Amino acid sequence: MVHALLVLAAEEAETSKTAFYVAGGVLAVWAVVIGFFGLRSPEFPGNQAAARGVMGLTAVLMVAAMATSVLTA
User: Cα–Cα distance between 33 and 30 in angstroms, integer?
Assistant: First the structure.
């Protein structure tokens, strides 16, 4: 009886890592897309505003993956 309660408590204490898997997956897909376009076009991303946008989105995705990693640990 006590063992069953301990197992149930341990299962309830675990946090879901779904948010990290989603954020990490999106970041990985973004890296592949950026790599694809970067290899296909020497001028990628074009102008300075587009470069800032790509870097900004990458930073947001990276921080999201890092935050969900820490929060779901």
Answer: 5
SS3 annotation, the chain:
CHHHHHHHHHHHHCCCCHHHHHHHHHHHHHHHHHHHHHHHCCCCCCCHHHHHHHHHHHHHHHHHHHHHHHHCC
Q: Which of 4-8, 45-49, 64-68 has the highest mean pLDDT?
A: 64-68
Question: Tokens representing 38?
Answer: 């970067």
- For the chain, the distance separating the N- and C-terminal CA atoms, rounded to the nearest angstrom, is 29
This prediction's pTM: 0.77
- For 41-61, what is each residue's pLDDT tens digit? 989 888 999 999 999 999 999
Peptide bond before residue 42 is cis, with ω within 30 degrees of 0: no
